[in-house]
Automatic annotation (TrEMBL):
One of its GO terms (biological process) is actin filament severing. This is Villin 4 isoform 2. Residues 894-959 form the HP domain. SMART domains: GEL, VHP. One of its GO terms (cellular component) is cytoskeleton. It is found in: Cytoplasm, Cytoskeleton. Keywords: Actin capping, Actin-binding, Calcium, Cytoplasm, Cytoskeleton, Repeat. Belongs to the villin/gelsolin family. InterPro entries: ADF-H/Gelsolin-like_dom_sf, Gelsolin-like_dom, Gelsolin-like_dom_sf, Villin/Gelsolin, Villin_headpiece, Villin_headpiece_dom_sf. PROSITE patterns: HP. One of its GO terms (molecular function) is actin filament binding. Transmembrane segments: none annotated.
Length: 959
């Protein structure tokens, strides 16, 4: 398409150069930019052009253009908006998809830009209306429709506007009422609450009450009575009659029309194939609810404008106000458009698009316009991250028929290509241990064992109350999470399971199972010690690749081969993997191009080989779909510009990242559908709804609400408190709206996640080894002295704590004071522990005076049951604390507590310390003074009668 500057409106210069939304309003037949502060504010008498620019992972920019027509806009303004949209597309290189939006019938894609809703205001520029001015609040009634995005429409404030099918919002001066029709869904009610929150924040400064009214609920409820009072009192609503407006035109047959001289001529009796569309023509595809305008790459700007006008005329003549016009350019057709055809080639002519875009950019550059955004940006190179804590514990089972066999730790990272495996990875989450239960299918594994592996893994997930994330992986399609968990991963040829051996015997296939004394070739790959793999390949020269390092062995002869494109880091991985495959053997290094004859002889002679890196397909921009699965049929609806709030607890959603598929299952999904979650993911791959040629072996994750792993939540601005709430979607959002936007949860908010790096040889706070259990740091309650802790510990049962959990980590509340002799002074804790340890038994010298007896000792507390989280004695002690603050200039002991001289702590002191707990004066002594003043305590203790000893011990327990 030839482009000249006279075809491009100056208002569009520099548009679409970065991600975001840009809006122009049509004023006097010209587009005028709308400031960002007014985005989302539309007037019924105006027409607008909206540009949405999205920066893709590939570095390219994707553009979607919409023109929005208010219900009171003039025909001339509407026509101008349509034409200017075509011009804007030309300014962007002729690749944008263009949508016609009519007030009240907007597409979900358009409404998703302005969540939660748009509420057009009366007025306009050229329509003769005056913009609404700030005035006394007026009571308004809105009808709200939609499960994923909401359409909001103001209706007449009368009882007759209400019905049983929809949600209504009554906005009064002091309170906002949401009336839920009895036939409305929970999801629709929840979405409507987002509109209530928007009205509350926008028009009431967040300061008004909110009430939810249920259809059919009588006057017993005060808020229900208040609501009906605005309508003159309660009266039952009539049953809805058939509404003509609700009838759609989507049921009509799809027709293809060719545009000639501005007129649309139907093509009769043709099967829809790509070959019908010529690059120098424009066509209309009439699908009823959607009318597509297809514009060939070699059509002129005038021809494209004429085709758009023909589409407008088509829907105007048939009074199809609900129909959407969508304009697409050859080579950049939408999935919806392509799906209407019986056959469509997989590849598109992207090269032509880049050429056209470059020409437009060069033209604008000569005019002095900044064209940085018009050219394809360089893709951002990012190292893949596992987004999972890699310091957990791992268990691996090999599937053998219908059973699973636990592998020893030394073999749990060594898989066979003919077998199937199940693994359970337990790792520290934000507030509890998290689980990942996965299955791995080797390339040569048999179907029966694959089905058995899925069944066994599903039982494991079910036994843990569906809390774990379930995953399904195929050999050569493993994600970064898998490799980071296994770290040093090796895949051998063949298999050792009974089913595999039976299979090759029946098929009379040569058994190529790895033999450590035979000839074997391994390709070594990975990014470091925490992510490295050795994959056994055919021992022939064509298996080599210049981008990798290899290990070749034949009995005790070992060669290592480094490709010319490898790095020192790659070569270091050879040595690490060699220690696992052939330990204690000296290897003979080989570099590409200078190999020995013996090396080639073992590979059967020289041959050509590749130099291209082998890897999984790159992750693409994620797409979210809502799913309905019934009788084996899967239906999906895409959710645009999604957020966490779009995940409804009653539904199942699929996140499609092309290289990975995530199936998210809400807590309140029917249990029968929960067990089919993995099947839903497989069905999604099979149907390939986005027509992106998905691999049937792409990894699938099944994720349960409330147990979302970090590698899923990274796609959102995630608030774990929301997923921790109980109740259905409506109840949760109602609690948030009424609570001022703060989720009400039943468990503590999750901690900040630990880092996702690999293991290190010296574990630190954020990097623990797998042998270490993990629990949140427990803060020592402020005011408990070391003396108190030591004394109390003697009367607690040491077996009461779950030994699998590490002891609480004492965190200092006060900054440590630095004194000249602080390094030499023994800790108070040690001094007190030494003193109190002798309380349980008398010193040897006094053994004859005070006989040893266990009867006088207080009974040790019983170990709490499994439901108890901690020792009840500890709980009691924790509740009795000293609350004091350290004043500036006061000394502190080595445990961070203030200390004072003994003379100032005495009752008859001339200069007593104030603002302390006078009943616990010894708490504030240094370790030396405590030992000096109370060193005689143990002597006096054993001189006491036995009943006094017991009484003292009991008082210490109550202390």
């Amino acid at each position: 398409m030839a482009v000249s500057m006279r075809d491009l409106d100056s208002a569009f210069q520099g548009a679409g150069q970065k991600g975001g939304i840009e809006i122009w309003r049509i004023e006097n037949f010209r587009p005028v930019s709308v400031p960002k502060s007014s985005h989302g504010k539309f007037f019924t008498g105006d027409s607008y052009v909206i540009l949405k620019t999205t920066a893709l992972k590939t570095g390219a920019l994707r553009h979607d253009i919409h023109y929005w027509l208010g219900k009171d806009t003039s025909q001339d303004e509407a026509g101008t908006a349509a034409v200017k949209t075509v011009e804007l597309d030309a300014a962007l290189g002729g690749r944008a998809v263009q949508y016609r939006e009519v007030q009240g019938h907007e597409t979900e894609k358009f409404l998703s830009y302005f969540k939660p809703c748009i509420i057009p205001q009366e007025g306009g520029v050229a329509s003769g209306f005056k913009h609404a001015e700030a005035e006394e609040h007026k009571t308004l009634l809105f009808v709200v429709k939609g499960k994923h995005v909401v359409h909001v429409k103001e209706v007449t404030f009368t009882r007759s506007s209400l019905n049983h099918d929809d949600i209504f919002i009554l906005d009064t001066k002091s309170k906002i009422f949401q009336f839920n029709g009895s036939n409305s869904s929970i999801q629709e009610r929840a979405k409507a609450l987002e509109v209530v929150q928007y009205i509350k924040d926008t028009y009431h400064d967040g300061k008004c009450e909110v009430a939810a009214i249920e259809d059919g609920k009588l006057m017993a409820d005060a808020e229900t009575g208040e609501f009906w009072g605005f309508f003159g009192g309660f009266a039952p609503l009539p049953r809805n009659a058939a509404n003509e407006e609700e009838k759609t035109v989507d049921s009509q047959d799809t027709k293809l029309l060719r545009v000639e001289n501005g007129q649309a001529e139907p093509l009769e009796d043709v099967s829809l194939t790509r070959e019908l569309l010529y690059t120098n023509k424009c066509y209309l595809l009439d699908c009823g609810l959607e009318v597509f305008v297809w514009m060939g790459r070699n059509t002129s700007l005038d021809e494209r404008k004429s085709a758009s006008g023909a589409a407008e005329e088509l829907i105007r003549g048939a009074d199809r106000s609900k129909s959407h016009i969508i304009r697409v350019i050859e080579g950049f057709e939408t999935v919806m458009f392509r799906s209407k055809f019986e056959s469509w080639p997989q590849t598109a002519n992207v090269a032509v698009s880049e050429d056209g875009r470059g020409k437009v950019a060069a033209l604008l550059k000569r005019q002095g316009v900044n064209v940085k955004g018009l050219l394809k940006a360089a893709p951002v190179k990012e190292e893949p991250q596992p987004y999972i804590d890699c310091t957990g514990s791992l268990q691996v089972w090999r599937v053998n028929g219908s059973e699973k066999i636990l592998l020893p730790a030394s073999s749990q990272s060594k898989f066979y290509s003919g077998d199937c495996y199940i693994f359970q990875y337990t790792y520290p989450g934000e507030d509890r241990e998290e689980y990942l239960i996965g299955t791995w299918f080797g390339k040569q594994s048999v179907e029966e064992e694959r089905a058995s592996a899925i069944a066994l893994a599903s039982k494991m997930v079910e036994s843990l109350k569906f809390l774990p994330t379930q995953a399904r992986f195929y050999e050569s399609n493993e994600p970064i999470q898998f490799f980071s968990i296994f770290q040093s991963f090796i895949v051998f040829k063949g298999g050792v399971s009974d089913e595999y051996k039976k299979y090759i015997a029946e098929k009379e296939i040569t058994d190529k199972t790895y033999n450590e004394d035979g000839i074997a070739l391994f390709r070594v790959q990975g990014s470091g010690p925490d992510n490295m793999q050795a994959i056994q390949v055919e021992p022939v020269a064509s298996s080599l690749n210049s981008s990798y390092c290899y290990i070749l062995h034949s009995g005790s002869t070992v060669f290592t081969w480094s490709g010319s494109l490898t790095t020192p880091e790659d070569q270091e991985l050879i040595e690490r993997q060699l220690d696992l495959i052939k330990p204690n053997l000296q290897s003979r290094p080989q570099k590409e191009g200078v190999e020995s004859e013996q090396f080639w002889d073992l590979l059967g002679g020289k041959a050509e080989y590749s130099s291209q890196k082998i890897g999984r397909e790159a992750e693409s921009d994620p797409h979210l779909f809502s799913c309905t699965f019934a009788k084996g049929n899967l239906k999906v609806t895409e959710i645009y510009n999604f957020t966490q709030d779009d995940l409804m607890t009653e539904d199942i959603f699929i996140m499609d990242c092309h290289s990975d598929i995530f199936v998210w299952v809400g807590q309140q999904v029917d249990p029968n559908n929960k067990v089919h979650a993995l099947t839903i993911g497989e069905k999604f791959l099979e149907h390939d709804f986005l027509l992106e040629n998905l691999s049937a072996e792409a990894p699938i994750y099944v994720i349960m609400e409330g147990s979302e792993p970090p590698f899923f939540t990274r796609f959102f601005t995630w608030d774990s408190a929301k997923s921790a709430m109980h109740g259905n979607s409506f109840q949760r959002k109602l609690a948030i709206v009424k609570g001022g936007g703060t989720p009400v949860i039943d468990k503590p908010k999750r901690r900040t996640p630990v880092s996702y790096g690999g293991r290190s040889s010296v574990p630190d706070k954020s990097q623990r080894s797998r042998s270490m259990s993990f629990s949140p740091d427990r803060v020592r309650v402020r005011g408990r002295s070391p003396a108190f802790n030591a004394l109390a510990a003697n009367f607690e049962n040491s077996n009461a704590r779950n030994l699998s959990t590490p002891p609480p980590v004492v965190r200092k509340i006060y900054p440590k004071s630095v004194t000249p002799n602080s390094a030499e002074r023994p800790s108070k804790s040690s001094a007190i522990a030494a003193l109190t340890s002798s309380f349980e038994q008398p010193p040897p010298a006094r053994g004859s005076l005070i006989p040893r007896s266990v009867k006088g000792s207080p009974e040790a507390p019983k170990t709490p049951d499994s439901n108890s989280k901690e020792n009840p004695m500890s709980s009691r002690i924790e509740s009795l604390t000293i609350k004091e603050d350290v004043k500036e200039g006061e000394a502190e002991d080595d445990d961070g507590l203030p200390i004072y001289p003994y003379e100032r702590l005495k009752i008859n002191s001339t200069d007593p310390i104030t603002e302390i707990d006078v009943t616990k004066r010894e708490t504030y002594l240094s370790s030396e003074e405590f030992s000096e003043k109370f060193g005689m305590a143990k002597v006096a203790f054993y001189k006491m009668p036995k009943w006094k000893q017991n009484k003292l011990k009991m008082s210490l327990q109550l202390f």
